[in-house]
Amino acid sequence: MKTDQEARPDGRGLRQSMSDLHTWVGLLLGWVLYAMFLTGTVSYFKDELSQWMRPELPAQSGVPDQAVVAQRVADELVALVPGSPQWSLRLPDARNNSVYAFWRTAGTAPGQRGFGEGNFDPATGQTVSSRATLGGDFFYRFHFQFHYMPVVWGRWIAGIAAMFMLVAIVSGVITHKKIFVDFFTFRWGKGQRSWLDAHNALSVFGLPFHAMITYTGLVTLMALYMPWGQQVGIKTPAERQQFNAELSAFIQPGKPSGEAAPLASIEDMVRHAQERWGRDGVGRVTATHPGDAAARVAVARGDGGRVSMSPQYLEFEGTTGKLLAVHEGVGPAAETRGVLYALHLGRFSDTVTRWLYFLVSLAGTAMVGTGLVMWTVKRRQKLPDPARPHIGFHVVERLNIASIAGLSVAMAAFLWANRLLPETLADRANWEIHSFFIVWALTLLHGVLRPAKKAWVEQLWLAAALLALLPVLNAATTHRPLWRSLAEGDWVFVGMDLMCWALAALHAVLAVRTLRHRAKLRPARKPAPKTVNEPAGGAVLREG
Amino acid sequence: MTSVAGRVRSVGPLVSRIAAALFGGYALAALASVAVLALPMSTPQAVLTGEMASFIIYAAAVIWVFAVRSALRAWAGLLVVAAPLLLAAWSVW
Fold this sequence. Notes:
- The complex is a heterodimer.
- Chain A is α+β, with helices and mostly antiparallel strands.
- Chain A contains 20 helices and seven strands.
- Chain A is 56% helix and 7% strand.
- By secondary structure, chain B is an all-alpha fold.
- Chain A binds chain B through residues 1, 3-8, 10, 14, 17-18, 20-21, 163, 166-167, 170-171, 174, 215, 218-219, 222-223, 225-226, 228-230, 232-234, 239, 242-243, 246, 331-334, 336-337, 340, and chain B through 1-2, 6-7, 9-11, 13-14, 17, 29-30, 33-34, 36-37, 41-52, 54-56, 58-60, 62-63, 66-67, 69-71, 89, 92-93.
């Protein structure tokens, strides 16, 4: 290693410093980013995953009338959480066959806010009679706040990782001098070259998406990461209320009057909103101080049909159902934020756009994964004794195995746990999550104990097997096997089964290529002029 | 291979750069997000503009810190940009 009076002496160019920055920024939080990317990618189908994980809820043949459902669940909430100062429910839509509601619990001291949440059956209004599970929301929440730690810590870690990612993207682009030419270059079976080409192709192909998704990810939680402007500029409660109205359709509870008065018809209020935004266009109903004379109800527009998450809602007087205000526009900066937010979540997507989101995001996951593997590939050739690598190399190599192959195993195991854990198990929803982490920890242990190449191959095969057998397990443990879902046109279940097989095939291909690969342990060749392509079946994972 | 002294001399500026990138970059971004409040626009819009711009400023600061020739220049550049922002932020504090 060359040293000089400066960390970057004059002799080294901008490209080299950016390359170093890219390498180290990418490596340091690469494992966190890989996990965020992969769990975030599957979260584009979180509603479908949730449906699959609650097989007791029948497939939805069409979106039920949102006005009727809202009234039904509101009645249930009045009985379930009397005196709650605020509740909010998300109505079913084309992708959701349950109503998610959360509420503040009554009688908690100020400062210690109590919250509750639940899923309700649109057909009956009752709490869903399905197995206890967090469903696809587990992956969704994990991807920006992790688990087993306070939510705020998780979000800060996710923010730091995203910021690293943003720097890695910019420095990666500067490093990359022939960004256009390289996109059409792919050298199979050439070890490090192939890895580099794969990494480049995956990155360049999705570059606008990767940059967008990283930046918009930061924007979703920017009030947490950059609170300073708000602290300086927004001081009085009135200012705060005005500010919040730019961001969210959640109306905040004011002071209750203390005088009891029942809510007017929620159905009529939602009906009113449907006239404005279409039959399935309502997203959320929020009530503050229901049962009190000072009650307010906000009926908010859904996320479909517009690329923005900025709040649009109708505000009603709770006891009379009189329309008090129509909130349909926010300021330009708030609208920009709404669009960026919507771009990240992709909830506006129709089926085709959603698949595109999923695939490009998967390419982003592979970009991070190939980058991590490349770190070891590049350095293995320079090791003095490849059979006994130094500790840093060892750590990276083993963490790569568990965080790439191991995560696939753990995510599949989570779905297995959903089908296998008994419904009567106490704390069942959490045990699904514990299963995920226990299996993930085991893959790390396995990765440390086995020789690296064997560990890669075994874990990839295990992931392939778990995924391939998931439709079989589903057929054995539920009343919704593939043949029935096909016959009944239940596309969520059909899609899950087919997707499991597609992903199983992907893992099997990776396993086979890793197995066939023989690591070249001689020092790296000097870049030679383009030679005849080597036979297929060359390097995929240069781990030996 | 390097001597111990050379290693120390090379690590110092690197640590300084890392600090400039992590903390200097964040401070600059935070400062900019407050300075935006001095612009002639409504406070909520200015706050949101500042928050959204801050991550781009942070990323640019990090790139700057590692792109320039020396750690000293890296810090100097951050300070040069910080000075007018500080004035603007001062006016709204």
